[in-house]
Design a protein that fits this description.
Blueprint lengths: L1 H5 L3 H9 L5 H19 L2 E4 L1 H16 L11 E5 L26 H8 L3 E6 L11 E2 L3 E2 L15 H8 L6 E5 L5 H7 L2 E4 L19 E6 L2 H11 L29 E4 L1 H4 L5 H16 L3 E4 L8 H16 L1 H7 L5 H12 L2 H21 L5 E5 L12 E4 L2 E4 H5 L4 H6 L3 E9 L2 E9 L4 H13 L10 H6 L1
Parallel strand pairs: 2-3, 9-10, 9-11
Antiparallel strand pairs: 1-3, 4-5, 6-8, 7-8, 7-14, 11-15, 12-13, 14-15
Length: 474
C-alpha cells in the first residue's frame, strides 16, 4: 500500500487527503520509505529531512481534521532542487563553496508552497551551480537514472527528475537555463515544464544566468504541472525579471481536445541529426495528434541556425560574471567541468556577447511571427538517448558526438526566447524514455499543456515507468 501511495500523482492524492481517506502522514511515510529503499543507489537527495517532514505531515493532518484544508497541495510531500532558499536552512547549490550557506529568507516559490501546506522531505541533488547537464556532482556524488542506473538522469535538475521518476517525491521543482528542467524530464520519463520567462518568480534562487534562468514544475502528470504552474505564477516585485501578467486557472482550462490546433514542425533544425529511434517516436506521436484533428504545418525559422552560438555565449559569460570573484579567490573548490566552463566564459569578448543578443532578438522576432500562424511547435527534447555516466560523447546513429554540443541543441532556443516549453515522454527505446518537446507563444502555457494532455491521454508509454525494485535488489 505504501508504494502505491508514493506512486500516485498530486491529482490522485488530493481528494483522498481532502476527504480524510488517507493522512498526509501516510503519504509522507510512503515517500520516505522509497527514499530509504532507493536513494542509496539513485543518489537523488543531498539532504533528507525525515523528522521535520513527519512533524509537518502531522501538523497538516491536524489542520485537515479540524476543517482547515488549505487546498490541493495541502499534505503533499515534495523535495526541491537544492538551489532554492529555505529560511534558516542550508542551500548548497550542489557546491563545495556554498556547502554551509544558510539563507535568511524563503524563495518566493518556497513561500508559496509553504502557504499551501506542502510537506518538504528534503533537498535534491543537482549539477554543481546548475552549470551542467549530467548531475555528475563531484561534491555530492552522481545521481543515477532510475530507468537504468548506469545512465545519467540529465541535468542540471537531475535529482528532481530521478526523485519524481522513482516515487521518492510526489513532485518537484527544477531550474532551467539551457534545458535543465526538460533534459532530466526527457531522460527520466516525466513531465518538465519551463514556463514563459517572468511567469514564475526567481527570487531566492541562486542564479546561473540572469537573463536565461527559469523555475518550473517537474511532475508525474500534465495536470500536476498545470497545478504547480497555477500555484506558483504571479508578479513578484522582488524579482526584477518578473512579469506582471494575469495568472490563469490552468487546471480548469486543461483539455485534451486538439481538433483544429495547428502544430508547427521545423525540419531543418529540430529534426536534423537526430537518433533514428527518437525521430521515429516523435513523428509517430505527431501523427497521433493529427488523427485527433490537429493540423500540421511546416515552418521555417532561419535564426535557429545561430541559436547555439547565442545560447552558449550568453550562458557562459553571465555565469562567469556571477562566479568571477570565487574563481579569482578559490577556483580549486569548483569541480573540474564547472571550472573549465567558467574559465572559458572569461575569454568571450563583449563583441561576441552583443552579437549573441542580436541573434536572440532576431530569434525572438522569428518565433513571434511563427506563432501567429501556429499554436505550438513540436520537436524531440533531446536528439539522443541518455548516455552512460561519465561519457563525454553521445551516439547519434553510429556517430560519436560531443555531449556538451548536443545536449541543449533543442532546448536552448526556449531559453533564448523565454518561450514556454514542456517535455513529455512519448516512447521507450532500449529501456529508456524518449522526450517530446512542445513549445508555445509567450504566456500561452495553456496551449502547450493542452497538447501535452492529449498526448498523455494516448498513453504512449502503455503505463510503463521506472521500476527500481529489480535494479536495487540485483
Amino acid at each position: 500500500m505504501n508504494q502505491e501511495l508514493a506512486a500516485k500523482s498530486i491529482q490522485e492524492l488530493t481528494p483522498l487527503i481532502r476527504d480524510k481517506s488517507i493522512s498526509p502522514v501516510e503519504v509522507t511515510r510512503a515517500v520516505l520509505e522509497n527514499v530509504d529503499s532507493y536513494d542509496g543507489q539513485v543518489n537523488a537527495y543531498i539532504e533528507i529531512e525525515k523528522e521535520k517532514a513527519i512533524e509537518s505531515a502531522k501538523h497538516a493532518e491536524v489542520e485537515i481534521m479540524n476543517g482547515n484544508y488549505r487546498g490541493r497541495l495541502h499534505g503533499i510531500p515534495m523535495a526541491l532542487k537544492d538551489i532554492l532558499y529555505f529560511k534558516n536552512e542550508k542551500a548548497t547549490m550542489g557546491s563545495k563553496i556554498h556547502k554551509d550557506f544558510v539563507a535568511d529568507y524563503d524563495a518566493t516559490v518556497v513561500s508559496k508552497l509553504k502557504d499551501e501546506g506542502t510537506i518538504f522531505t528534503g533537498k535534491l541533488n543537482m549539477h554543481e551551480y546548475a552549470w551542467g547537464a549530467t548531475t555528475t556532482n563531484p561534491h555530492f556524488g552522481a545521481t543515477r537514472n532510475p530507468w537504468d542506473l548506469s545512465k545519467i538522469p540529465g541535468g542540471s535538475s537531475g535529482g528532481s527528475g530521478a526523485a519524481v521518476a522513482s516515487d521518492m517525491t510526489i513532485a518537484s521543482l527544477g531550474t532551467d537555463t539551457g534545458g535543465s528542467i526538460r533534459i532530466p524530464a526527457s531522460c527520466c520519463g516525466i513531465i518538465g515544464l519551463k514556463p514563459t520567462h517572468g511567469r514564475i518568480s526567481k527570487h531566492g534562487c541562486f542564479p546561473l544566468s540572469w537573463s536565461l534562468d527559469h523555475i518550473g514544475p517537474m511532475t508525474k502528470t500534465v495536470y500536476d504541472a498545470a497545478l504547480l504552474l497555477e500555484t506558483l505564477s504571479g508578479y513578484d516585485p522582488q524579482d526584477p525579471t518578473s512579469a506582471d501578467v494575469p495568472v490563469k486557472n490552468f487546471t480548469e482550462i486543461l483539455s485534451d481536445d486538439v481538433k483544429g490546433t495547428v502544430i508547427g514542425i521545423n525540419e531543418e533544425y529540430f529534426f536534423n541529426n537526430v537518433d533514428r529511434r527518437v525521430e521515429e517516436s516523435v513523428r509517430k506521436a505527431i501523427l497521433e495528434l493529427e488523427k485527433l484533428g490537429a493540423n500540421i504545418e511546416i515552418v521555417k525559422i532561419p535564426a535557429l541556425a545561430l541559436s547555439e552560438f547565442g545560447e552558449l555565449v550568453t550562458i557562459t559569460t553571465e555565469a562567469s560574471a556571477i562566479h568571477h570573484d570565487n574563481m579569482v579567490s578559490q577556483s580549486e573548490n569548483f569541480g573540474d567541468d564547472v571550472r573549465f566552463l567558467l574559465e572559458f566564459g572569461e575569454l568571450i569578448s563583449a563583441v561576441d556577447y552583443l552579437k549573441a543578443q542580436q541573434i536572440r532578438r532576431q530569434l525572438s522576432n522569428e518565433f513571434a511571427s511563427t506563432f501567429k500562424r501556429i499554436d505550438v511547435l513540436i520537436s524531440p527534447t533531446l536528439p539522443f538517448l541518455a548516455p552512460n555516466i561519465g561519457e563525454q560523447t553521445v551516439d547519434i546513429n553510429g556517430e560519436q558526438l560531443s555531449f556538451l554540443d548536443q545536449v541543449i541543441r533543442f532546448t536552448g532556443p526556449g531559453n533564448l526566447t523565454g518561450l514556454p516549453a514542456l517535455s513529455i515522454p512519448c516512447a521507450i527505446a532500449d529501456g529508456l524514455p524518449i522526450g517530446l518537446q512542445i513549445m508555445g507563444a509567450a504566456f500561452k502555457e495553456e496551449k502547450v499543456l493542452n497538447v501535452a494532455y492529449a498526448l498523455e491521454k494516448l498513453n504512449l508509454l502503455k503505463g510503463r515507468k521506472a521500476d527500481l525494485r529489480g535494479a536495487v535488489s540485483s
